[in-house]
TrEMBL record:
<keyword id="KW-0378">Hydrolase</keyword>
<protein>
    <submittedName>
        <fullName>Acyl-CoA thioesterase</fullName>
    </submittedName>
</protein>
<dbReference type="GO" id="GO:0052816">
    <property type="term" value="F:long-chain fatty acyl-CoA hydrolase activity"/>
</dbReference>
<comment type="similarity">
    <text>Belongs to the acyl coenzyme A hydrolase family.</text>
</comment>
<feature type="domain" description="HotDog ACOT-type">
    <location>
        <begin position="14"/>
        <end position="127"/>
    </location>
</feature>
<dbReference type="Pfam" id="PF03061">
    <property type="entry name" value="4HBT"/>
</dbReference>
<dbReference type="GO" id="GO:0009062">
    <property type="term" value="P:fatty acid catabolic process"/>
</dbReference>
<dbReference type="InterPro" id="IPR040170">
    <property type="entry name" value="Cytosol_ACT"/>
</dbReference>
<dbReference type="GO" id="GO:0006637">
    <property type="term" value="P:acyl-CoA metabolic process"/>
</dbReference>
<dbReference type="GO" id="GO:0005829">
    <property type="term" value="C:cytosol"/>
</dbReference>
<dbReference type="InterPro" id="IPR033120">
    <property type="entry name" value="HOTDOG_ACOT"/>
</dbReference>
<dbReference type="InterPro" id="IPR006683">
    <property type="entry name" value="Thioestr_dom"/>
</dbReference>
<dbReference type="InterPro" id="IPR029069">
    <property type="entry name" value="HotDog_dom_sf"/>
</dbReference>
């Protein structure tokens, strides 16, 4: 059987860090049989928190999902790779970009960007109030 090249396949980013890999399971599906968008959003929130954790050095919380784009559906058995980079460090907040690439079950080694998002996290103190991001 001939292997048809995926027109959406693209190289993985080299200017971002791999922060999470996960494989969705049948329990994560929506009524269409694709993966539920809310499950993807939860994984993106976790992946997006990895780089801010290095800077916040303490408690922090998600304050905003500034943008979230589902470019292609995610399927059961896809190997998902989450790449992230810091976009902006403010006084108390850190904004990151997250890009999600799927390696389809039947096309190992080919990557398709399925989701991209921008999220902002805020460092918080013991009372849950914003605190400054450490500078050093
Ligand atoms: C996080 C929280 C303590 C921030 O308090 P706040 O009084 O709303 O925050 P502020 O208005 O002082 O803004 C804090 C920072 O967030 C940024 N910010 C506020 N609203 C924002 C928005 N809609 N988008 C992006 N950044 C935003 C501000 O610019 C500021 O950044 P800076 O200090 O780097 O300039 C509070 O909003 C909160 O507790 N939210 C709930 C968090 C939560 O439960 N998250 C989900 C589970 S983790």
């Amino acid at each position: 059987m001939s292997h048809s090249p995926n027109p959406h396949a693209e190289p993985l980013p080299t200017d971002q860090e791999l922060v999470l890999k996960v494989i969705p399971m049948p329990a994560d599906c929506n009524a269409n049989g694709d993966i539920f968008g809310g499950w993807v959003m939860a994984q993106v929130d976790l992946a997006g928190a990895v780089l801010p954790a290095r800077h916040a050095r303490g408690r922090f919380a998600t304050i905003a999902v500034n943008e979230f784009i589902f470019k292609h559906p995610v399927k059961v058995g896809d190997i998902l790779s989450f790449f992230s980079r810091v976009q902006r460090i403010g006084n108390t907040s850190i904004t990151v970009q997250v890009e999600v690439f799927a390696e389809r079950f039947s096309s190992q080694g080919e990557y398709m960007k399925v989701t991209e998002a921008t999220l902002t996290y805020v460092a918080i103190d013991k009372d849950g109030k914003p605190r400054a991001i450490p500078k050093d």
